[in-house]
Structures are given as structure tokens and as C-alpha cells.
Write a structure and sequence with these properties.
This protein is α/β, with parallel strands linked by helices. It contains twelve helices and 13 strands.
């Protein structure tokens, strides 16, 4: 990555999460001065990367009145990545109001805090590929397609997108604060221990020596390794900071090439090539909630304006992910495994 990051003051909300931990590690390795704000880690990944002593680490709720305003005032960030979110579809069904509170009102608190800044700033507001009104047509969504969301998680992120667009036009227009939203396809990678996500479910089952329960084997998603969208976010932020192109302060899809748009069944069977085991189809579960059957993204905008293309294809992404889980299960330090994969990715 670019020398641009050395010495940059970077604020990451949600830095203790799966994607936030990978991003924090990458940016600290590049010499950025990173501040993180998040709830207590829900998995051991952040702690295993030994990040707490390598950045300015703040535990707090982005929805707490005044908290983001104080952190922003104290750190004066040049680059902001807003990643804090309730990001699980099934958990959102269980706690829909809490999901909306975090994903919408929490984002408003972040943007309100940024209004006090002056001078060049780049802001990347991370949402999801699930913000679109999905009719299961399999047509790749482009950034100008209508927003929607059948389930509480998807709809909360679509509402966040509307809020970002409103604040950008209402308060950041004709300022040096340049803000974009980033919509990433399904992300996989070592260190994700969330419940009811297919890759962590695979890793847990294989480590326990039991069959993998697969809810929706025929669901189709745009799968990509976590480092792919993170590189996209970083490239977008660098361009927002250094370029005067007005088209950058907008929405961007980050997803794999067409060969990465695959079924859950493909993910499971590819994972089992690296870590042998078995799986069973539980799609007949009568209590299962609605999830979209097909979701694909068009990524030409990121390719054209940012020069962003995927480095790792589907097979390599799944293989690298399972190699991470197997290595850690075999006793290798998670930080060492993660740094080695980061180096492999940068060299690709």
C-alpha cells in the first residue's frame, strides 16, 4: 500500500470487530496513528492480534451522547472509517430496535461529531451489499439502484445510506470534509467468530469434529476475502483525501469478480478441500427467517474511479481463510498467522 498512510491520524469506529481488527492491524503496520472506538470485543480476535497497546484504544458506545464529539475533538483525525455496527442478519431479527439504534442513530452521532472539523478530511462510511431492494433477480446491483431491505439489518443499513447522503448534501457540501459510503459483498477471512455466519460455523464444526450445519446451501453471494474490501476502503479514503474529483464523494460497491459469485454450497465444499470433514443441509428448518436467495454486485465504478480489482479469486480466498483457522486450531499464534497472510496479500 501507499506511503500515504505513514503518520496519518486515522479514526476507526468498530475497531475491535472482525473487519475493524484486520484494518487496525494493517494501518498500524503501515505507520498510521490509529485511534479506535468500539464496544468490548465479542471475540478473541482483537486481543489475539495484540492491538490494544499499538493504537489509541477507546471502549465506548457510539450512541452515547457526546462520546464521539469528545473522541474526535481529542484526536483530530484526518481519515475516518466508520465500521461500528450490529452486522448480523439473524441477531437483527431478535433485536431490531437495537440494530436500528446502532446502525442509524450511531452513524448520525459519528457524522455530527465530524461537523466540528475543518481542513481536508476523508470519511468512509461502511454499510453493506444488502442495502438494495432485492427481488432475487440475480441482476448485479449498481450504486444507483433503489435502496430497500426485507429484514431489519438490511433496512437499517439502507436507512444509514439515506442519512449519509443527507448529511453529505446538507452539511459537508462545499467543505473540505469529503464523505463516501462503501458497500461490500460477503466477507470471509480468519478471525471471524460471529454466530450464524457460514465460515465461522464451518471452522467451529471442523474443530469439534462434527458435521457443518448449512442453512441455505443454494444461496448465492459475492464472496471475497476481508482484505479485498479493506484495500478498497483504504484506496477510497486516500483518493478522497488527495483528489478533487467530485465523483468520489458518493457510493461504492466492493465485491469480487464474477467467478467469486458462488453458492454457500461452493464455499463449504471448497473449505473441506483444505480441512476435511462433512456437512448437512438444514434448509428445511421451519423456524428459518427470510434471507435473500441471490445477491450480486456490479463493481465497475470502483474499478474505473479507484483502479480497484480483486487480487485473490474465490478458491484462494476460501483456502487462505481455512488455512488461518486450521493454523490457529493447531496452536499457531493468531497475530503471526494474520501478519503472514497480510504479507502474502500485499505481495500478490
Amino acid at each position: 500500500m501507499s506511503e500515504f498512510w505513514r503518520g496519518k491520524r486515522v479514526l476507526i469506529t468498530g475497531h475491535t470487530g472482525f473487519k475493524g481488527s484486520w484494518l487496525s492491524l494493517w494501518l498500524t503496520e503501515l505507520g498510521a496513528k490509529v485511534t479506535g472506538v468500539a464496544l468490548e470485543p465479542e471475540s478473541p480476535f482483537f486481543g489475539a492480534l495484540d492491538l490494544e497497546t499499538r493504537l489509541s484504544h477507546h471502549i465506548g458506545d457510539i450512541c452515547a451522547p457526546g462520546m464521539m464529539t469528545k473522541v474526535v475533538a481529542d484526536t483530530n483525525p484526518e481519515i475516518i472509517f466508520h465500521m461500528a455496527a450490529q452486522s448480523l442478519v439473524l441477531q437483527a431479527y431478535e433485536a431490531p430496535v437495537a440494530t436500528w439504534t446502532t446502525n442509524v442513530l450511531g452513524s448520525l452521532h459519528v457524522m455530527e461529531a465530524l461537523r466540528n472539523l475543518s481542513g481536508p478530511r476523508a470519511v468512509v462510511m461502511v454499510t453493506t451489499d444488502k442495502v438494495y431492494a432485492n427481488d432475487d433477480s440475480a441482476q448485479p446491483f449498481v450504486e444507483t439502484d433503489p435502496l430497500g431491505g426485507h429484514d431489519p439489518y438490511s433496512s437499517s443499513k439502507a436507512a444509514m445510506e439515506i442519512a449519509v447522503e443527507s448529511w453529505r448534501k446538507s452539511f459537508f457540501h462545499d467543505t473540505d470534509i469529503r464523505m463516501a459510503s462503501a458497500r461490500a459483498g460477503n466477507v470471509i477471512g480468519g478471525g471471524d467468530w460471529a454466530k450464524n455466519r457460514i465460515v465461522p460455523d464451518i471452522a467451529r464444526a471442523l474443530a469439534d469434529g462434527r458435521p457443518i450445519d448449512v442453512r441455505n446451501p443454494d444461496a448465492i453471494r459475492p464472496w471475497q476475502h476481508v482484505l479485498e474490501p479493506l484495500r478498497g476502503y483504504m484506496t477510497l479514503a486516500e483518493n478522497l483525501f488527495t483528489s478533487s474529483d467530485v465523483n468520489l464523494a458518493s457510493q461504492f460497491n466492493f465485491g469480487p469478480t464474477a467467478e467469486g459469485v458462488r453458492s454457500v454450497r461452493d464455499v463449504v465444499e471448497t473449505a473441506l478441500k483444505t480441512w476435511p470433514g462433512s456437512w448437512k443441509d438444514i434448509s428445511g428448518d421451519a423456524s428459518a427467517v427470510h434471507e435473500a436467495r441471490v445477491l450480486t454486485l456490479a463493481t465497475e465504478k470502483a474499478q474505473t474511479l479507484l483502479g480497484h480489482d480483486a487480487k485473490w479469486g474465490f478458491e484462494q480466498s476460501v483456502t487462505q481463510t481455512m488455512n488461518w483457522y486450521k493454523a490457529v486450531a493447531d496452536g499457531r499464534p493468531a497475530r503471526d498467522v494474520t501478519l503472514n497472510q497480510l504479507k502474502d496479500y500485499e505481495a500478490a
